[in-house]
Amino acid sequence: DGGITQSPKYLFRKEGQNVTLSCEQNLNHDAMYWYRQDPGQGLRLIYYSQIVNDFQKGDIAEGYSVSREKKESFPLTVTSAQKNPTAFYLCASSGTASGYNSPLHFGNGTRLTVT
Amino acid sequence: GEDVEQSLFLSVREGDSSVINCTYTDSSSTYLYWYKQEPGAGLQLLTYIFSNMDMKQDQRLTVLLNKKDKHLSLRIADTQTGDSAIYFCAESIGGATNKLIFGTGTLLAVQP
């Protein structure tokens, strides 16, 4: 089955540690995205990548970093510089056909708790 | 800037229709989407509408778009307890990317 896999589902870290969240897709989509979800605030875009080896900052990129070395993979690192890292992180991807961007498909999320 | 607003909560009885409303600000939006999120899960695409349409029907779901008022609604007919979830409206600010701006979500509670 095609889809987006995020791992792990739950992640616990101590303050001051960097942590990397995994996102893999087998949908052959060019574009991938990372969103952060906090209660009552909807989803906010952290980073996105339209093609391998290229990525752009979203609305709340400070304290995060990404890489896009392979089409299938878009890992997100939450660094110690992120002031409020505890949140639910969602990865998404979308494809392109005839110039039309397909809707975003989401993974099941990783809940990160930093204490 | 772009903004998408939704009411936070809606309660309906099983079998009734639910109507979830959304307003957006970017008149250049190309597509508008409805996503469903169940507890602890990711977002599931329910339906979407192109900005030059005013209605789209898909089984129990009806989407209405009033572009003049920048108002989008999702009607769920014969609402079931399995429809209980958070529903997100999103607008595509488009261009070469498919960046979405999401609303805060509406929690739909279906009473048996």
Give a description of the structure.
The complex is a heterodimer of chains A (115) and B (112). Chain A has 115 residues and is mostly beta strands. Chain A contains no helices and 13 strands. In chain A, a hairpin with a 5-residue loop joins β4 (31-37) and β5 (43-51). Chain B is mainly β and 112 residues long. Helix content of chain B is 0%, strand content 56%. Chain B has no helices and eleven strands. The mean pLDDT of chain B is 91.
The N- to C-terminal Cα distance of chain A equals 36 Å
What is the general shape of chain B?
A: globular
Q: What oligomeric arrangement do these chains adopt?
A: heterodimer
User: What share of residues of chain A is helical?
Assistant: under 10%
Strand content of chain B: over 45%
Low-confidence stretches of chain B: none
Q: How would you characterize the largest beta sheet of chain A?
A: 7 strands, mixed
Count of β-strands of chain A: 13
Number of helices of chain A: 0
Largest sheet of chain B: 6 strands, mixed
**Element string of chain B (H = helix, E = strand):** EEEEEEEEEEE
The chain pair with the largest interface is:
A-B, 27 and 24 residues
Mean pLDDT score of chain A: 91
Q: Could you say which structural class the secondary elements and strand pairing of chain B correspond to?
A: mainly beta
Ends distance of chain B: 41 Å
pLDDT < 50 stretches of chain A: none
Quickly give the structural class of chain A.
mainly beta
Spatial extent as radius of gyration of chain A? 14 Å
Number of strands of chain B: 11
Order of helices and strands of chain A: EEEEEEEEEEEEE
Shape assignment of chain A: globular
